[in-house]
Amino acid sequence: MSNNTEAHGREYIVPLCVLNAFFALTAVVLNSVTIHAIRKTSSASLPKNLRVLLLNLALSDLSVGVVVQPIYIIHLTFLFESHQGNYSQKVEIVFGVTATVFVCISILGVLAVSVDRFLAVYLHLRYQEIVTPKRVVSILILSWVISTIVYLFGIEHEYHDFLGIFRNVFLATCLTTIALLQCKIYSTVRRQRFQMRAQQVQGSIQTEDETRATFERQKSSVSSAFYIYLLLLACYLPNMFASFIFKKSKERIFRILHKYMITLVFVNSCLNPLIYCWKLRHIRRTIRMILRNIFVGRHSGTVSCRN
Question: Mean of the pLDDT values across residues 21-41?
Answer without folding.
Answer: 91
